[in-house]
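PROTEIN DESIGN WORKSHEET
SECTION A - STRUCTURE
LENGTH: 292
TOKENS:
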């Protein structure tokens, strides 16, 4: 399941496998939907995504059941289907934000209420924010320096803050965490691609990613890997598996649907609060997060 777009599909936008969808439609099985009315076929696809994300073979069904039932952090075992890649990315952002602000009036006080959430993103070579790209919603556009006047007013009042970290520079990352993960501020999350698809196709070094993620795990900082554009470049389907990463959220998209069914999704752990594949552990901000 992924967002329909113009990247990566080696067989183009109409490869033969999609004849199966036509056969299904002919016998009355409707196409999968992005909401919580999803049926049996969609749930099976969600289960398969969780299997692949955890590196399990098709015959390892008992192991997959254990993954789906896991309550441990950094275990990707939830799929939330959304209609565009931008919403899949924003879902992870919202789950991070939900540790600071209530989604609804009836929700309990968040664990980090009163602190300013600080989002770490990939910075450009000028020290700015233009190297990251996580969609076209207003909040995620602010992550890359857009809406500067609006962002400056929000940052000035302590609503939230965006901090760039230098590409493949371990000192920059450690310094950012040290500066903003204390006092009235707290790092709400680290959001990044593995290949900076909108900034020269720069690939993050494995040791830099490993070091940054280790710091995040030690400090209880959620990690979101955006694979909207990179997922199908890897023989593993998910590039994060080549890095040996255990993120809290992963979004995937463009390479998966062959431009037929526009369904990006976000993986997360139940330890996260979002709509992505999710690992288990963070308070949910919305959506059912039901296993497939």
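SECTION B - SEQUENCE
RESIDUE ASSIGNMENT:
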């Amino acid at each position: 399941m992924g967002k329909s777009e113009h990247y990566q599909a080696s067989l183009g936008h109409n490869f033969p496998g999609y004849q199966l969808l036509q056969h299904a439609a002919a016998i009355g099985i409707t196409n999968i939907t992005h909401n919580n009315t999803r049926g049996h076929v969609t749930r099976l696809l969600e289960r398969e995504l969780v299997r692949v994300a955890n590196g399990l073979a098709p015959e390892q069904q008992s192991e997959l059941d254990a993954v789906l039932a896991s309550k441990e952090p950094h275990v990707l075992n939830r799929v939330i289907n959304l209609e565009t890649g931008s919403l899949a990315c924003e879902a992870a952002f919202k789950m991070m934000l939900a540790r600071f602000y209530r989604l609804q009036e009836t929700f309990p006080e968040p664990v980090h209420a009163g602190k300013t959430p600080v989002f770490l993103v990939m910075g450009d070579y000028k020290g700015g924010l233009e190297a990251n790209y996580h969609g076209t919603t207003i909040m995620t556009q602010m992550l890359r320096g857009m809406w500067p006047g609006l962002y400056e007013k929000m940052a000035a009042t302590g609503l939230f803050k965006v901090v760039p970290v230098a590409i493949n520079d371990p000192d920059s990352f450690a310094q950012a965490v040290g500066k903003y993960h204390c006092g009235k501020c707290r790092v709400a999350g680290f959001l990044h691609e593995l290949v900076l698809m909108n900034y020269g196709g720069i690939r993050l070094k494995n040791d830099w990613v490993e070091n940054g993620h280790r710091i995040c795990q030690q400090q209880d900082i959620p990690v979101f890997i955006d694979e909207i554009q990179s997922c199908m470049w890897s023989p593993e389907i998910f590039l994060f598996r080549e890095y040996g990463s255990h993120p809290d959220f992963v979004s995937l998209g463009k390479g998966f649907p062959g431009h037929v069914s526009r369904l990006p999704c976000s993986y997360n752990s139940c330890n996260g609060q979002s709509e992505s594949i999710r690992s288990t552990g963070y308070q949910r901000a919305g959506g059912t997060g039901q296993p497939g």
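SECTION C - NOTES
The first strand starts at residue 76 and ends at 81.
Strands lie at 76-81, 116-122, 161-165, 185-192, 195-196, 202-203, 223-227, 249-252, 265-270, 277-280.
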